């Protein structure tokens, strides 16, 4: 499929006489694809067994007549009210044991046999009707799926059956979970229940982690139920679902394993933070999505206006944001960017989640910018088939994300923030990062960033050791090697299974609370890079001879004892002043770094420069903060994207050339490889 721009459209929400006017405007803009029908079940099946697709036939034909392609969605996120009235057992049960209030969306139990039967009937009708329609190019399954945390009787039994398959008997569960604590030992699988009530974080962390694994697999099974059904009716169907970073995130790698492409709902901020320490770029999100299948992806919902409805409205996108954010997604591997939505809704909960057109239906500033975006993307067709591939990998783990969320280690310290800091360090010097599953093949990379490896997996540990032994560079951080696969703490010095690789071990750790302390950089190279970073990126006129260079730490302190490791930075205050905080160690043919604390932004950038220089990876020495450089490749051709992801003019000097980029402006260049 070509690189293209699309929109989300809800024909059931608008008078039919508006459809052709909307389609004509879309065609004039250059829209190539339209997504529809994700919430339209009540229109498709107004009464049980009574189907009406004629309205959808007409809607599809309106766009097909104008040579626009259509993505149809299975409408299973929002069953009609008659279904809840007739079959109340399909309503999702919350952690309080009560059925949740209906009238919103996603309020269905994915495991309910009755609900599955209703889903199968409507999906059969949908796919049988459109499988031979050339305008329909793909199906989206459901909408923004979360891990299935329903606690109804069906789901409780499903969880118990999952446990029976995983463990031979309850004695094995008791041993794995450490259930002797608080008299929690099971004598029967009938006693194994999902975490319930208001105090879930008080419950056994081994149980809650296993439950989240089950909940993720349960959602994957629901997705697979729909995928296999669609493919049984249309073997050539192209299928996806739209993901997002939600509260109960499923394992993305499992979620998309059998789907054709990854899709993501992308809503970058319209409010840029005042602090240079706050990371806001969605480059991280985009790289995470690309890394799920390690191939190009789609944006199924893209920021189009102010967001709001159940919360106060955000500021409207500034001039350049709509165009710049969409091109940023393409630069990171998105082949299609579908904007949510064409027109702002005039009814329902999302009436202040703004689209390209406002309630007035009068084209305005955002519409004109969107039209310009379509024109630009029309000129990118020679990039068809191009891809993004980098020499630096960042490991993501669903277990670590949930385990860290379940038991917060320190105030304000989050798993994804640790990942973002390392990702930003390399992005800030123009080095791209592939975010991949912790179990993925590492052989194609020069550097692997493995932050917060909280929960140990034997396969990951072996892969990281082998990678370093064979000459790769690894970076580990605090809270690594803390727990076993059952979410229990390991009884040995941290980072346990990784301490031989880093050449050091944790003597003690401390949570400094809200206090920010100082680090002393011991390594001359790291110190020099840090000072240069302050001068070039943070506009601080620091002299290299000064002792005070404002290296700050916060949130966490591993006080290290070195064996073979070199000390790169030490703590400059508190009772552990002078003790190692950051180390580097030669391991086999490679090198392993360890960061025992949480640093300020400039330190991560300086360390990224040191690592890139050691591995011979090209980087940009004086890239202004907020400017992102990415590449797409095809055969012998490389396209470079230079994106000013800030609200100010930026002057960039690259390869003896000088650029002046306006806020959110993207510069694209065709290079010869």
What does this entry look like structurally?
The protein is globular, with a radius of gyration of 26 Å. The two termini are 24 Å apart. The longest helix has 29 residues, at 205-233. A hairpin with a 2-residue loop joins strand 18 and strand 19. Helix 5 packs parallel to helix 8 (205-233) and helix 17 (524-537) crosses helix 18 (601-615). By secondary structure, the chain is α/β, with parallel strands linked by helices. The strands form four sheets. Strands 10, 11, 12, 13, 14, 15, 16, 17, 18, 19 and 20 form an eleven-stranded mixed sheet that branches.
- Unreliable runs: none
Main structural class? alpha/beta
Into which percentage range does the β-strand content fall? Answer: 15-25%
Q: Can you summarize the main beta sheet? A: 11 strands, mixed
Taking all residues together, what is the mean pLDDT?
96
From the spread of the alpha carbons, the general shape counts as globular
Q: Span from first to last CA? A: 24 Å
Task: Put the structure in a nutshell.
By secondary structure, the chain is an alpha/beta fold.
């Amino acid at each position: 499929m070509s690189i293209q721009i699309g929109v989300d459209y809800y024909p059931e929400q608008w008078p039919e006489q508006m459809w052709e006017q909307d389609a004509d405007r879309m065609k004039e803009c250059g829209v190539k694809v339209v997504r529809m029908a994700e919430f339209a079940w009540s229109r498709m099946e107004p009464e049980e067994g009574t189907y009406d697709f004629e309205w959808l036939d007409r809607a599809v034909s309106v766009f097909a007549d104008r040579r626009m392609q259509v993505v149809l969605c299975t409408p299973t996120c929002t069953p009609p009210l008659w279904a809840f009235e007739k079959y109340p057992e399909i309503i999702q049960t919350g952690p309080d044991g009560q059925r949740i209030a209906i009238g919103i969306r996603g309020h269905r139990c994915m495991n309910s046999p009755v609900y599955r039967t209703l889903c199968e009937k409507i999906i059969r009708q949908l796919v049988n009707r459109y499988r031979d329609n050339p305008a329909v190019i793909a199906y989206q399954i459901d909408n923004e799926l979360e891990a299935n945390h329903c606690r109804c009787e069906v789901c409780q039994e499903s969880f118990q059956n999952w446990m029976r398959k995983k463990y031979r008997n309850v004695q094995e569960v008791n041993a794995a979970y450490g259930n002797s604590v608080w008299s929690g030992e099971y004598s029967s699988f009938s006693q194994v229940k999902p975490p319930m009530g208001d105090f879930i974080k008080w419950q056994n962390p081994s149980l809650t982690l296993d439950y989240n694994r089950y909940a993720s697999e349960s959602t994957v099974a629901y997705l697979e139920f729909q995928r296999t059904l669609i493919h049984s009716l249309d073997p050539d169907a192209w299928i996806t679902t739209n993901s997002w970073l939600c509260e109960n995130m499923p394992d993305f790698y499992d979620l998309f394993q059998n789907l054709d492409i990854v899709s993501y709902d992308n809503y970058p901020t319209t409010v840029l933070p005042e602090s240079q320490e706050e990371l806001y770029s969605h480059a991280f999100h985009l790289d995470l999505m690309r890394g799920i299948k390690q191939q190009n992806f789609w944006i199924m919902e893209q920021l189009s206006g102010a967001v709001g409805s159940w919360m106060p409205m955000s500021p409207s996108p500034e001039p350049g944001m709509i165009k710049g954010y969409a091109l940023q997604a393409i630069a990171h591997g998105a082949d299609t960017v579908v904007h949510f939505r064409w027109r702002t809704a005039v009814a329902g909960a999302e009436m202040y989640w703004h689209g390209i057109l406002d309630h007035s239906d009068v084209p305005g500033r955002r519409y004109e910018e969107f039209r310009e975006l379509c024109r630009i993307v029309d000129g990118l067709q020679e990039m068809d088939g191009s891809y993004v591939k980098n020499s630096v990998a960042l490991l993501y783990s669903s277990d670590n994300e949930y385990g860290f969320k379940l038991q917060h280690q320190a105030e304000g310290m989050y798993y994804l923030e640790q990942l973002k800091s390392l990702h930003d360090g390399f992005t800030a010097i123009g080095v791209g990062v592939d975010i991949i599953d912790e179990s993925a093949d590492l052989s194609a990379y020069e550097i692997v960033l493995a932050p917060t490896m909280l929960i140990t997996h034997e396969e990951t540990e072996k892969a990281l050791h082998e990678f370093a032994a064979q000459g790769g560079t690894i970076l580990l951080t605090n809270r690594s090697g803390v727990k076993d696969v059952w979410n229990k703490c390991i009884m040995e010095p941290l980072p346990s299974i990784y301490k031989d690789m880093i050449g050091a071990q944790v003597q003690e750790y401390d949570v400094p609370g809200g206090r920010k302390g100082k680090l002393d950089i011991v390594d001359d190279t790291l110190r020099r890079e840090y000072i240069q970073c302050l001068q070039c990126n943070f506009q601080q006129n620091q002299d290299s001879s000064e002792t005070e260079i404002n290296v700050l730490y916060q949130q966490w302190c591993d006080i290290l004892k070195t064996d073979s490791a070199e000390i790169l930075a030490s703590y400059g205050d508190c009772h552990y002043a002078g003790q190692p905080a950051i180390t580097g160690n030669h391991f086999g043919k490679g090198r392993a770094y360890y960061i025992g604390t949480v640093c300020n932004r400039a330190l991560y950038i300086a360390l990224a420069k040191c690592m890139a220089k050691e591995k011979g990876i090209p980087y940009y020495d004086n890239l202004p903060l907020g400017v992102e450089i990415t590449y797409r490749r095809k055969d012998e051709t490389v396209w470079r994207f230079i994106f000013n992801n800030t609200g100010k003019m930026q002057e960039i000097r690259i390869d003896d050339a000088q650029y002046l980029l306006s806020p959110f402006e993207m510069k694209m260049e065709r290079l010869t490889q």
